[in-house]
Specification:
Layout: H1 33-56, H2 58-76, E1 81-85, H3 88-97, E2 111-115, H4 122-130, E3 136-140, H5 150-153, E4 158-161, H6 168-172, H7 179-202, H8 207-214, H9 218-227, H10 231-234, E5 236-237, H11 254-263, E6 269-270, E7 275-277, H12 279-282, E8 302-303, E9 308-311, H13 316-327, H14 330-335, E10 341-345, E11 351-356, H15 358-361
Parallel strand pairs: 1-2, 2-3, 3-4, 9-10
Antiparallel strand pairs: 5-11, 6-7, 7-8, 10-11
Length: about 375
């Protein structure tokens, strides 16, 4: 069956971009610069407005402290921080997950942070009614609980205001999320960094050291390697690594390991005097109730006899070259792989420090 030809063109929708004109050459139109500067200026004003609010408003300051307390206590108990948002707020939530974590489900030890500019997103109102009794933080443009519909569903929720200096319709002539998402991300980053600083200070650790542990590659890791003269410079002394111990008379759980890692230099944990769990292995732990022992999870902890010894006086470049050469043979690939612990031998011929093989040759392990 043949369909009749359409004689008149279909009128494009308002949001449909026009077809490009192939005869028109693309060139920089400097008249566009003021428009771009206008957007940047309004983003700056929005952030300044947010700063002013938390600098002078006691209610906002109290809410921020409450939010930090909820998150730190949740993490200390082994719970998760769960971000929830719809639409553009969902994208902001995804961005914040890069700093925190995202779970598969919600349990009583968790804390939920909802992002809603209006404070009355229908999907979140429905979800709030069915949440288990977990702490709730509401990041919204509403400055008072009375103005936020979500707080009528969960009056126990902590209101974390993230207002903007003026409606986006006024700033840009339309209501597309711009300044509202900027202030939400800025406030979320502030919440994340202050929480991390607090937790690390409680464990007598520096945030910069923890960041270095979790970001061994890239520019930061490369700078770390450049400053190191030899393996001894970048290894962590075994004696400085704390031993994880269970609570009371119970068996050792994943939560005990994670809490020990928070207090440990660069995230290393000792199970006993001969077994170590490396930082990357700690990060694989999901079930905080999982029992940790020699048989519970093969490869999680590594016996001292399985560490690969390297001289502490060897340069990082020399060791990386040796790893590359050994991995060119089948035998070398069996013991120089992801999860391998390098034992650094000191001048007394003792293994006194360790580091993960990924810290030296992560790129070679992918080959």
């Amino acid at each position: 069956m043949a369909f009749p030809a359409i004689e008149r063109p279909i009128t494009p929708l308002p949001i449909t971009p026009p077809d490009p004109d192939p005869t028109r050459s693309l060139s920089l139109d400097v008249s566009l610069i003021p428009s771009a500067l206008h957007v940047i200026s309004n983003q700056r004003k929005a952030v300044t407005y947010l700063e002013s609010l938390y600098r002078s408003d006691e209610a906002a300051q109290k809410s921020l402290v409450q939010a930090i307390a909820l998150i730190t206590s949740t993490i200390s108990r082994g719970g998760k921080v769960i971000f929830v948002g719809v639409g553009k707020s969902g994208k902001v939530a995804e961005k914040l997950v890069a700093t925190f974590t995202i779970p598969a489900d919600i349990v009583k030890n968790d804390v939920v942070l909802m992002l809603t500019f209006s404070g009355k997103t229908p999907e979140l109102l429905l979800l709030a009614q069915h949440l288990p009794s977990v702490p709730l933080i509401i990041m919204t443009s509403c400055r008072k609980p009375a103005d936020c519909t979500l707080t009528t569903v969960r009056p126990d929720g902590v209101l974390l205001p993230s207002p903007i200096h003026e409606p986006e319709q006024v700033s840009f002539g339309h209501s597309a999320p711009t300044t509202s998402t900027t202030v939400a991300m800025v406030l979320g980053d502030a919440l994340a960094l202050v929480t991390a600083e607090y937790l690390h200070n409680q464990a007598n650790r520096r945030t910069v050291d923890v960041f270095l542990t979790n970001h061994p590659g890239g520019a930061i890791g490369q700078q770390f390697s450049r400053n190191a003269r030899c393996m001894q410079d970048i290894a962590i002394p075994v004696d400085s690594i704390p031993i994880a111990s269970p609570k009371s008379n119970s068996s050792l759980k994943a939560l005990d390991v994670v809490l020990t890692a928070v207090r440990s230099p660069r995230g290393w944990v000792r199970i006993d005097h001969s077994r170590l769990i490396a930082p990357r292995a700690v990060q694989t732990l999901c079930d905080m109730e999982e029992e940790i022992n020699a048989e519970s999870k093969r490869g999680l902890s590594v016996e001292k006899t399985d560490w690969i010894s390297v001289l502490g006086s060897s340069s990082v470049k020399e060791v990386k070259g040796w790893i590359k050469k050994m991995r060119s043979e089948p035998r070398g690939r069996t013991f120089l792989k992801h999860g391998t612990i390098l034992g650094v031998v000191d001048n007394c011929q003792e293994v006194s420090a360790v580091l993960e093989i990924e810290d030296v040759a992560a790129d070679l392990l992918e080959a």
